[in-house]
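dumping this here so i dont lose it
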């Protein structure tokens, strides 16, 4: 008999039919009721065993985590919270799970604990919901750009350049450290080497994206990117996924419009397609909120928060305006900011970003025109202001609970200005001649941005640690499998 997926029978009224389902045991109560999940839905289906007529030895093998195949009749359920159940005719154990050893018990586990068993946490309802939403968001992003005619570019993972010029790269090497001779002190003479060339894992596909945009007009990338920064926060990964659209004949204004439209589109998509998952996570979040001190609780539930993001225009202000707001405010009656903003030119700390978004405007905020010295070499240089301060046509989008979710800019398309800035910032101009060719031959205004995919998933799922929205997080001390 062909297997039926649980998601396809949960709402059926076609009772009396005989079906086969296969999945993993979540719970087994009173020697009679098995809750089975096959991953197709966050919901389980209840299977009722005729235990008087079933072999005891077989029933003993129905343990949490075991894989089973059940054939039976679909009937209306009288139980609370479920419409259907399956009356068992045949029950087969496909794979046993030793209850003494299986780490997932039929109870609520902490996210910290589940992080330690990342290879099994997919089997919990929470992670089923998170990764279904992650999938839906990825699909929505491709749909958004595809519908607009953007070309999806696969940019290289191994590259010789540092797109951000920040030196946060993992080196790639073909050296087998186990085979090269060791020095007396056990160290090896390490020379970065990719068949003779120095290379690293990409920090961003932007530079290659720019090359493609200057031919296709509009492209996007969506792939893994790597940052060798040793930051142990709830918002940083060493390996994360980034979406990077790049658009020719486009300025900063168009870039902001595109980013806001994309974010609203994908949030809308999740609301429309992941109702069950969002409802489950929302309930989970409310329980967590109850345990926090009253003044630390979020004012909005998850779905309201997502709708709120859709219903409001993002605030758009310059960095200089933001600094003025921050200088004139105190985060609350008594407390000053831990990091004071007294000088124009400093980068914003996450507490400043969160203050602007969560306390001051209470809306997503797009900050533009940052000081040139705290941004990357490729950003388009604005005319210096009346006091001679130099800014670039940058934009960062700040989201409630997240901070920076998008970073982007209009690009410097003027060859002389770009070269001059690269020299100033010690970027190897000669080695990047291929990049500068776009400015030599038919240069045109263009712009783009990078959306951090895990930060988007964090926002939509309401999870609070970035390690809980990527299957196998890569963070310092976390690369076991
Ligand atoms: O601001 P970033 O560094 O910008 C770039 O890489 C540009 N090349 C993008 C572009 O214009 N095409 O990174 C973009 C976004 C950030 O806003 C953040 O959401 C995410 O990528 N991000 C990270 N996410 C998780 N862990 C990290 N270590 C991240 N670093 C950046
Ligand atoms: Mg940034």
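and the seq i came up w/
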């Amino acid at each position: 008999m062909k297997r039926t997926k649980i998601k396809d029978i949960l709402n059926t009224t076609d009772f009396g039919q005989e079906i086969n389902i296969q999945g993993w045991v979540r719970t087994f109560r009173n020697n009679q009721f098995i809750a089975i999940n096959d991953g197709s839905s966050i919901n389980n289906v209840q299977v009722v065993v005729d235990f008087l007529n079933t072999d005891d030895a077989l029933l003993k093998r129905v343990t949490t985590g075991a894989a089973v195949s059940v054939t039976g009749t679909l009937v209306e359920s009288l139980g609370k919270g479920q419409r259907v159940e399956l009356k068992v005719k045949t029950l087969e154990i496909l794979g046993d799970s030793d209850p003494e050893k299986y780490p997932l018990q039929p109870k609520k586990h902490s996210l910290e604990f589940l992080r330690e068993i990342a290879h099994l946490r997919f089997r919990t309802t929470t992670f089923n919901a998170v990764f279904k939403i992650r999938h839906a968001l990825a699909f929505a992003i491709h749909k958004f750009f595809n519908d607009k005619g953007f070309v999806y570019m696969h940019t290289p993972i191994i590259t010789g350049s540092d797109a951000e010029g920040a030196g946060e790269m993992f080196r790639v090497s073909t050296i087998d450290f186990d085979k090269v001779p060791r020095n007396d002190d056990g160290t090896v003479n390490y020379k970065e080497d990719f068949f003779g060339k120095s290379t690293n894992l990409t920090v961003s596909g932007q530079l290659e994206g720019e090359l493609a945009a200057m031919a296709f007009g509009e492209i996007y990338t969506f792939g893994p990117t790597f940052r060798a920064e040793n930051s142990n926060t709830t918002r940083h990964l060493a390996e994360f996924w980034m979406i990077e659209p790049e658009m020719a004949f486009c300025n900063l204004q168009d870039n902001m419009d595109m980013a806001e439209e994309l974010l609203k589109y994908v949030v809308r998509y999740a609301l429309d397609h992941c109702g069950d998952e969002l409802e489950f996570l929302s309930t989970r979040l409310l329980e967590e909120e109850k345990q926090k001190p009253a003044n630390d609780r979020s004012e909005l539930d998850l779905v309201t928060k997502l709708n709120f993001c859709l219903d409001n225009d993002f605030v758009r202000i310059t960095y200089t305006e933001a600094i003025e707001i921050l200088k004139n405010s105190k985060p609350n009656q008594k407390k000053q900011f831990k990091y004071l903003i007294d000088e124009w030119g400093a980068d914003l700390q996450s507490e400043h970003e969160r203050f602007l978004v969560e306390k001051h405007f209470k809306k997503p905020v797009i900050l533009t025109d940052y000081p040139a010295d705290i941004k990357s070499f490729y950003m388009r240089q604005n005319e210096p202001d009346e006091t001679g301060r130099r800014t670039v046509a940058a934009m960062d989008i700040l989201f409630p609970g997240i901070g920076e979710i998008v970073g982007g800019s209009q690009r410097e398309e003027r060859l002389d200005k770009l070269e001059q800035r690269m020299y100033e910032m010690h970027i190897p101009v000669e080695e990047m001649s291929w990049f500068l060719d776009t400015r030599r031959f038919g240069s045109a205004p263009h712009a783009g941005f990078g959306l951090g995919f895990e930060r988007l998933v964090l926002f939509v799922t309401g999870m609070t640690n970035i390690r809980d929205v990527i299957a196998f997080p890569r963070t310092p001390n976390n690369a076991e499998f």
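The first helix runs from residue 56 to 60.
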